[in-house]
## 1
Amino acid sequence: MRVAFFSAKSYDRKFFTERLKQFRHELIFLEPHLSQDTCKLAFGFEVVCVFVHDRLDREVLKRVAEHGTRLVALRCAGFNNVDLNAAKDFNLTVVRVPAYSPYGVAEHAVALILALNRKIYRAYNRVRDGNFSLDGLLGFEIYGKTVGILGTGKIGRAMVSIMKGFGCRVLVYDLVQNPDCAALGADYVEKETLFEQSDIISLHLPLAKETHYLIDEKALARMKDQVMLINTSRGGLIDSRCLIEGLKNGKIGYLGLDVYEEEESLFFEDKTGEVIQDDIFARLLTFPNVLITGHQAFFTNVALENIAHTTLANISAFEENRLSPMDLVKVEESAR
Ligand code: NAD
């Protein structure tokens, strides 16, 4: 099939071109994000292949469907950027890569925890400057601490298993209990209990109406002073405005973000030398106890291989009418 491949990066070209040898599709790599301004580029393509910052709103979906698109192939797990009701209305099939490397994402969350706790990012610069003072680098032992994990799907489960390995007490919250997590020794609790008792809180829920701003001023107020908050899921789970006050008054002792609610205009691009226009993001960068990475938790060789393989296999399955209902991203999922 002919595929308009939006938001293409050098690593996408490398992994998809390598994998393409096993498939018969034609991929046209396009650097822009898919949006109302760029959707013309997709006209005439049966498939659009997109990533997390492509915007598939009703207007975009309507226009591409009118010009021959039948399949939206997401090369990511999250699908909060697609209007699934509109996709249904315009008879567009939507597929995604539900699991490409849950351990990779969980390991990145743990990397943020360890780096924040032992201030590795500060120690690295200090030692290179010839400053071997330990002042300001005091950490705590993760062993024995209470870790709260919101969302016990594929990534949350991996997170439970790693944090159990550290000797932590693990509290979990999800609408649906995952028996693996209970078997690993995690305790399902109400989210309020998790907020109140956890020393470290890590988010692994999808972004949907129900989870938007799950962490707001009220949720923060319930948390322990000096809590460590980690978000490798989606920026919109946290109301970023309350983070600044939380950091200033010591409610948040450590903040590790791989995602940010307004990341679209920043992440995945080299902005060296540019003035950051987002005042909240710029302020967050000034705190010594904040560590931000630019949506790189997924970024491992295993994940990129799996993303390329599953995306191309999804397109083949659609072409050959072999997609099972389990493979489709359905409207009901966005309503969870
Ligand atoms: P998953 O679907 O396996 O698990 C999500 C869990 O959240 C499920 O157990 C589900 O029951 C639960 N859930 C959904 N809505 C809920 C609600 N309203 N209240 C409580 N629980 C709810 O997903 P996953 O593979 O573990 O991924 C989780 C998220 O991580 C993705 O949605 C994506 O946004 C994010 N992600 C980020 C990166 C990155 O690079 N930073 C990479 C992959 C995924």
## 2
Amino acid sequence: MKVACTEKSQVLASKLAKALEIPLIHTQFKSFPDGEIYLRNGDPDEETVIVAGFAGSDSLVQTLLLIDACEGSDVTLVLPYMGYARQDKKFNPGEPVSARAMAAALSRGVSRVLTVNIHESTVLGHFTVPATDVTLAPEIGAHIATLGLENPLILGPDGGAATFARDVAAAGGWEADHLTKTRLSGEEVRIAPKEVAVQDRDVVIVDDIISTGGTLATAAGMLREQGAASVRAACVHGVFASAGYARLAAAGLEAVMASDTIESAASAYTAADAIARALR
Ligand code: R5P
């Protein structure tokens, strides 16, 4: 078995190859003069694990080309971050179910798919090959444990993230809760934990995705007003669209942490070990 990867997942793929103690294939990526993507893969093995995080169209094309270049190999496609997964239904007439379109395209030529904290588990059903999801909640919990916080409060930003928050908190035996939004007037909303008071607590808000950071910046400001000693954010997928990282830093968060499902300077913990465990 060997590991191959798209350009955006080269660090994660290297760590995964190391964890699995198997070779990493070097793939050459270039563009044709007209902008079309070219790649040339090293020798695949009988079994190949392709690590293909994609957030943009170029990485999607690289993924499709890489799968094709591994023709003849039994391919496991690892999608650390699956782009387009958030458009998982038609919210308005005339829209595509983008997650379904992507899953169908990415199923061709692969035997199985592995995702990491996919936004909605129903998306797995759109692949035409077996697809499973792994969670980084234990990794995030283990990282929080290294921060030296005494009895941190782990908060999900909404009810949908409550289970994730509980799973992260389980790593350290900490308290978990989730935020609720109460409309006070036409213009005013109050965001506060459902049950646990934040006064003098070190709070870590955990979420699957930080995109623009808008959700967390607003929540963090309100938690500080309610007396939180500190507010940090930890997510699986750090998209940081529209300067989302800077937005959170400007909002006074003590730390903004993400995994390497999208590789960036904010990558504080790796998905490699969880993926390796699932592949074994
Ligand atoms: C929503 O369901 C997701 O879990 C995230 O809370 C959301 O994607 C965050 O978006 P943003 O960072 O743009 O507020």
